[in-house]
Design goal:
The complex is a heterodimer of chains A (284) and B (263).
Chain A: H1 2-9, H2 11-14, H3 35-54, H4 66-79, H5 86-117, H6 119-132, H7 137-148, H8 152-176, H9 180-188, H10 193-227, H11 236-245, H12 249-277
Chain B: E1 2-12, E2 18-29, E3 34-38, H1 45-53, E4 60-65, E5 68-69, E6 77-80, H2 92-96, H3 98-102, H4 107-120, H5 136-148, E7 154-158, H6 166-183, E8 186-191, H7 194-200, E9 203-208, E10 213-219, H8 222-229, H9 232-237, H10 239-255, H11 259-262
Parallel strand pairs in B: 3-8, 3-9, 6-7, 7-8
Antiparallel strand pairs in B: 1-2, 1-4, 4-5, 9-10
The chains are: A mainly alpha (284), B alpha/beta (263).
């Protein structure tokens, strides 16, 4: 009798087995994190690279070992490359992208909003944008050089053109996402057209505009190497091109790594900006 | 007073033929009047409200508010929507004060007035919450406070409680009667709940579809009784209430055209 009582009071006996936690069956990826899978995949890819280069499955000229790439990265970081320090290369590229992005946003957002609001604006801007938007930037690169020379202007124009279209299209889509009810609510509260724009239309379109800007920055990094083909003396794209001419494959790897890191940092910053500017996204 | 005179609305159907949505509706909403439009979907009650709000021009006829013709949306006619249409990037208090901001009222005064209105609808503790943090009933209360902020002459309410569960709905009805009694606004209210119409209206108009028109009008005292005695159950279970509910139910179902009468 007493034994039984002691037994049932002991923690082992008292702790009920953990209940089976359940949730609704989901379609698609669902909420479970995929980060661990990605990390393992990355580790396997680097392992394969390391194995392939150490076992000399490919010539070092084509595939440097990870150690060589890290050494090249250290040397580029310490001494620079192609007559400029790493910082000068990175800042040249980043400032080109930022200037071009600023131009694309300043021109693209108002034009996109206008195209969403006015039949005339849509009619006027639709044709040229739909014409040039699918073109690969490399196709009109020669024109940029002929028209604008080989200085900064042609590079920045090329980048700005590549970023302009996605921003315009997203601003236009943003206006379309404004509900009639919200507009009516503002009008029945006495909003003027300008107040309606500032208080309702622009904030409603903001999530779409930010998504467009994020896509545009991605395209910008993609176009960068093309832009820096134009007689540049600074820039990560130039660094890669210049290294490739000397068959310095390890430095090409470093350049690619730097672009990837920059693009990732930009994308991360844009997501942070989104969380800060449009915390209501996906709510209500 | 809001006066609707012989208002007709024809929409263009997809094939371009005119669809008769509203047929020569005349209606007067007196000072302190609470007029409820009741009818099945497609009877033109939302069309009528959109015309009163100025969202929709009339094909013929006229609408006047205190002698001034209605030509477009304006702050003297507050609208409460079925879906709240709050701005998620503004706090509850800022949403309430939106009309004051449009009118150029200063920040401090806006805040004070918003808090005062939130107190009226019982949400003073949620002034700085985001709209999407509130429940459906609370959001509709914000919608009512927001519509009241510019001190409109009339409140136009388009099935504001239609999406709420029935218990919240009854609370909201009682709250609305309080707001009405305290502010003395004219109210035009749309519903397809007969009980809601009877409980709220000083006048109920029953509308019928194809074309939308008013087929019956009832003058009622239930809302006055509630504002006085505050006993909703007693009113809703009273024999007169039940009798009228059945009468109106018959009218509403009768006004619904059967398939044979349409073709």
């Amino acid at each position: 009798m007493t034994d039984l009582a002691v037994l049932s009071l002991s923690p082992e006996a008292d702790a009920a087995p953990l209940p089976r936690l359940v949730r609704m069956r989901e379609f698609g990826v669902g909420k479970a994190s995929s980060v661990r899978i990605s990390v393992v995949t990355g580790a396997i890819l680097i392992g394969l690279w390391w194995g392939a280069s150490e076992l000399h499955l490919a010539s070092h000229l084509f595939l440097p070992t990870p150690t060589e790439v890290i050494n090249a990265a250290i040397s580029v970081f310490k001494d620079g490359y192609a007559n400029a320090s790493l910082w000068e290369h990175v800042s040249a590229s980043v400032s080109r992208i930022l200037v071009a992005a600023a131009i694309a946003v300043v021109l693209g957002v108002p034009i996109g909003l206008l195209m969403g609001l006015s039949r005339w604006a849509k009619g006027v801007f639709d044709a040229p944008i739909e014409f040039y938007w699918p073109l690969p930037p490399l196709a009109y690169l020669p024109l940029m050089i002929i028209w604008l020379g080989i200085g900064e202007a042609s590079k920045i124009t090329l980048l700005a053109l590549a970023m302009f279209a996605p921003i315009v299209l997203s601003a236009q889509a943003g206006v379309r996402s404004v509900t009639q009810e919200r507009v009516n609510a503002a009008l029945s509260l006495g909003a003027t057209r300008w107040q309606l724009m500032r208080e309702v239309v622009l904030p409603s379109a903001l999530p779409e505009i930010l998504t467009g800007a994020r896509i545009a920055l991605g395209i910008g990094w993609g176009t960068l190497v093309a832009a820096e083909l134009i007689a540049a003396t600074r820039g990560i794209g130039y660094l890669i091109m210049s290294a490739s001419q000397f068959l310095a494959t390890d430095v090409v790897f470093v350049g690619i790594g730097i672009i990837a890191a920059c693009a990732f940092a930009f994308s991360f910053a844009m997501r942070a900006l989104e969380r800060w500017l449009v915390p209501w996204k996906g709510q209500s | 007073m809001l006066r609707v005179d012989n208002a007709s609305v024809f929409f263009a159907a997809r094939d371009g033929r005119p669809v008769h949505a509203l047929d020569r509706v005349s209606l007067e909403i007196p000072e302190r009047g609470f007029v409820v439009a009741l009818g099945t979907s497609g009877c033109g009650k939302s069309t009528l409200l959109n015309a009163m709000a100025g969202f929709l021009p009339l094909s013929s006829g006229s609408i006047e508010l205190n002698g001034h013709p209605v030509t477009g949306p304006g702050a003297e006619r507050g609208v409460v929507f079925q879906k709240d249409a709050l701005l998620p990037w503004r706090s509850v208090a800022e949403n309430v004060a939106l009309g004051l901001k449009f009118a150029g009222t200063g920040r401090k005064e806006r805040r004070e007035r918003a808090l005062e209105l939130l107190r009226l609808v019982g949400l003073q503790d949620f002034a700085d919450a985001a709209p999407y943090e509130l429940s459906g009933g609370m959001r509709q209360r914000v919608g009512i406070a927001r519509a009241l902020a510019p001190d409109p002459a009339i409140l136009l309410m388009d099935e504001p409680f239609g999406a709420l569960d029935s218990m919240t709905r009854e609370q909201m009805q009682e709250l609305l009667v309080d707001v009405w009694a305290r502010t003395g606004k004219q109210i035009f209210f749309i519903t397809h709940s007969i009980e809601e119409a009877l409980f709220l209206g000083t006048q109920v108009i029953v509308m019928s579809p194809r074309p939308g028109r008013i087929v019956h009008r009832y003058d009622l005292q239930f809302v006055g009784a509630f504002a006085r005695d505050r006993d909703a159950r007693a009113i809703k279970t009273a024999p007169q209430f039940a009798a009228l509910r059945e009468e109106i139910r018959a009218v509403v179902h009768q006004s619904e055209p059967t398939r044979s009468s349409v073709s």
